[in-house]
Design brief:
Layout lengths: L1 H19 L3 H18 L2 H17 L3 H17 L3 H17 L3 H18 L2 H17 L3 H17 L4
Length: about 160
C-alpha cells in the first residue's frame, strides 16, 4: 500500500513540475493517472489533490466548465475532511475560472467564501491572497472603494508577514 500511495504522490508531483514548465498535456495525463490510483485505492487526500490539479490543467487549457467540476469535487473532499485552508485555496482557483469565463458574481462568491474560511484560521498568507483576489474582482465590478479596502487589507497582512 505504501508503494502505491507513493506512486500516486509521485505522479502528482511530477505532473506539477511539468505543469510549471508549461507541458500541460503531459501534466494532465499524469494527474489523471494519479486520480485513477487515488480513486481505486480510496486515498481521499490524494484524490482531492488530483481533482485540484486536473482543475488547474483544464482551466489553463481553456476547458472552464470541466475545470469547475473538478474544483468542486476537490473542495467537497477538503471540506468534509476538515482541510479548511486547502478548500479555500481551491475556492480561489475556482473563482479565477469563473472570472476568466466572465461570471464575476460567481467569482466574487468564491472569493468571499475563501476569505471567510481564511479569516477563521488567521493564516495571513492565505488571507492576503484572498484579499488580493477580492480587490481585483471588486475593481472589475466597478467598485473601486471596495477594491482599495481589500488591497489595503492584503498589504496589511503582507507587512505583518514582512513580505509586502
Amino acid at each position: 500500500t505504501g508503494y502505491i500511495k507513493g506512486q500516486c504522490q509521485s505522479l502528482i508531483e511530477s505532473g506539477t513540475i511539468l505543469y510549471i514548465r508549461g507541458k500541460y498535456e503531459e501534466a494532465g495525463e499524469l494527474f489523471f493517472n494519479a486520480l485513477a490510483i487515488a480513486e481505486r485505492e480510496n486515498y481521499l487526500e490524494l484524490k482531492a489533490t488530483a481533482f485540484n490539479q486536473i482543475g488547474k490543467y483544464l482551466h489553463t487549457t481553456g476547458h472552464f466548465d470541466e475545470s469547475v467540476s473538478y474544483y468542486k469535487r476537490a473542495i467537497e473532499i477538503y471540506k468534509s475532511n476538515g482541510k479548511a485552508l486547502l478548500s479555500a485555496s481551491v475556492l480561489l482557483s475556482l473563482g479565477k475560472t469563473y472570472n476568466n469565463d466572465g461570471n464575476l458574481y460567481m467569482a466574487l462568491k468564491c472569493y468571499l467564501e475563501a476569505y471567510s474560511t481564511c479569516e477563521k484560521t488567521n493564516d495571513y498568507v492565505s488571507l492576503a491572497d484572498a484579499c488580493n483576489h477580492l480587490g481585483s474582482i471588486y475593481l472589475s465590478l466597478d467598485q473601486p472603494g471596495k477594491s482599495m479596502e481589500y488591497h489595503r487589507k492584503a498589504l496589511t497582512f503582507r507587512i505583518a508577514l514582512n513580505t509586502p
